[in-house]
Amino acid sequence: MPNSLFRKKPLQRILEDAKQDGGDGHAGSLKKVLGVKDLTSMGIAAVIGAGIFSTIGTAAFNGGPAISLLFVITAVTCGFSALCYAEFASRVPIAGSAYTYAYVSFGELIAWIIGWALILEYAIGNIVVAISWSGYFNNLLEGFGLHLPAWLTADPGTAKGAYQQVQEAIAAGTPLTPSLQFAKDAWETAPIIAGYHIFINVPAFAIVCFIAVLTYIGIKESKKTTNFLVVFKIIVILFVIVIGFFFVEPNNWSPFMPNGFEGVLRGVSAVFYAYIGFDAISTTAEECKNPQRDLPRGMMYSLVICTVLYVLIAFVLTGMVPFTTLKVADPLAFVFDSVGQEWISYIVSVSAVVATTSVLLVFQLGQPRIWMSMSRDGLLPKKFASIHPKYQTPWFSTIVTGFLVAIPSLFMESGLMTDLTSIGTLFAFVLVSGGVLMLPRITGDNPGQVGKFRLPYINGRFIVPVLFLIFVYFLGDRIINSLKNIGTSLQHIADGGLQEILFLIFGALAATLTVLTALRKYNVIPILGVLFCAYLLTEIPALSWLYFLGWMAIGLSIYFSYGYFKSKLAKGN
Q1: 394 with 386: CB under 8 angstroms?
Q2: Residue 197 pairs with which residues in a beta bridge?
Q3: Do both 160 and 271 map to the same domain?
Q4: By CB atoms within 10 Å of each CB, which of 65, 126, 362, 556 scores lowest?
């Protein structure tokens, strides 16, 4: 059994399976319509979204103006992973993203784990985006004088929490602010069934259904819509950056790192959430005209463009107002309201609706294609690989994804979803970066292993050990303290102890990879991709990790009850 858990799928067989029947009698091939411009546009669409319009405020509150450095650090981290993705995408130009790459390099069990983790990135991440879209959309309606009933625009948990704040304010004799008065009116006017106040987020549900229909109809229609949305939001973002610099007060950039580097790192989840999704490009490999050439270019172009925009936005935000005021849900709109430019904040709201719509679109394209690949391998029922005879899209997987996102968006709080999504994404990045080291060697007589993009080789034999020594020099005291207090950490897993244990695991991983790199002369790019992403994982709160481990337990139970026996690599299949 141990050997069968890590059975690998040869590259040539993956390419052959992709050409076979889609599972319901229709041809399994998808419509090839995407070029490098479309892929770059999709990458920008996936990255410039809820992060730049919401989570960037929390990150700036923790790190101050130095948050711009964290965007650069995160971009470099993603850059290492993006190069590894590009190598895989060039040699394995098949839908499935990190799931397919893990199947080639690590084997079936790891492939299933990463496929299950990607649901956190795409499907569950889209729930957060849909909720964010609903908030900006409601603001737009208010601007036009249209008012939806409050109980149709919020989830029950948020509404109940807001009403509790109302009661606390009344008990303390504090005058109600406009937002608290709104929460009070919303709670008291909501319909009541069986003693429960009914709250549902209809706009979030509606936009997900609309996007699901669009992705069901076809990739060509999705491509045109994405390109339009991306051009529009880039124009608006550039406009905001240019106008914002006229209101910058340089004094707000001092001190540059008010809470030290530790404060900057507290924004890891928020900042990394802004970058998730550039890997979604790789899920459209089978719909690219020239995937081996265009996928690597699309990934790198989109990453560079988005990083420049994020850094400029970070400087504008922290320069217009003191960083301590930025812990708000809509920081871009907030800063322009603060300088008396409410009309610009309205434009920001329009752009936010457009930006989050494009993120929804790209993520709703990605998830069905991962399920399609898992179904082709026998790990999910055949229906998930069904290709529509007219639209040439994975129609059943698209419908299931739509329901998986739309229904929870009616009543779910965004809460932990940001951290959970970041864990799923970083987990994928670690495995893809490590997987490059395990790819079969490229040979001229095996066309299935030759791509048009080759990961640049930089001998890490001396570079990685030097970096490891620098790591030990600066964090040696923490390593020693973590080892001394490991017993206490195990007793307080949910209260931060898990993070110390994760830090020790990272240290062990770093030491192991350093030794292996020195002995085997590994390429420094994938090694740094693994180490950078693994370190960022240690910065995510412990509670989110516990939920993630629970999610993994559910996924493994499904694999061992169905996928392990139904796999096409299993004996008898």
Answers
A1: yes
A2: 192
A3: no
A4: 556
